[in-house]
Specification:
Length: about 100
């Protein structure tokens, strides 16, 4: 769960940073890009911990939660719309996660 939330916030910060004009030489001067890299890359630490204690076939599908978090964060911070198809996708993801957890 922590890994998916960190990854979603990492994606959000990468999006924020991408709005600024940044060439490849100055990419590491963009604080939002750096935060995005740290969060997105750092999300592998709790993911590895989850893999240590859980089965890959159970843990890996849970990463689909990041799609849910990104949709919600995009709505809140980027004012993106949530369409009926996005809601249907989120419902399907949640059903899939529930079925895998049984």
């Amino acid at each position: 769960m922590v890994a998916t939330i960190m990854g979603a916030f990492g994606s959000l910060y990468l999006k924020f940073g991408s709005k600024k004009r940044t060439d490849i030489k100055n990419i590491f001067k963009n604080h939002q890009i750096i935060i995005g890299f740290v969060l997105y890359g750092g999300s592998t630490v709790p993911f590895i911990a989850a893999l240590k204690f859980g089965e890959l076939s159970f843990v890996y599908p849970l990463t689909a939660l990041s799609y849910v978090w990104v949709t919600l964060l995009s709505k809140k911070y980027l004012k993106e719309g949530i369409t009926k198809n996005k809601v249907l996708g989120i419902i399907m993801i949640m059903i899939g996660i529930f079925l895998i957890s049984l």
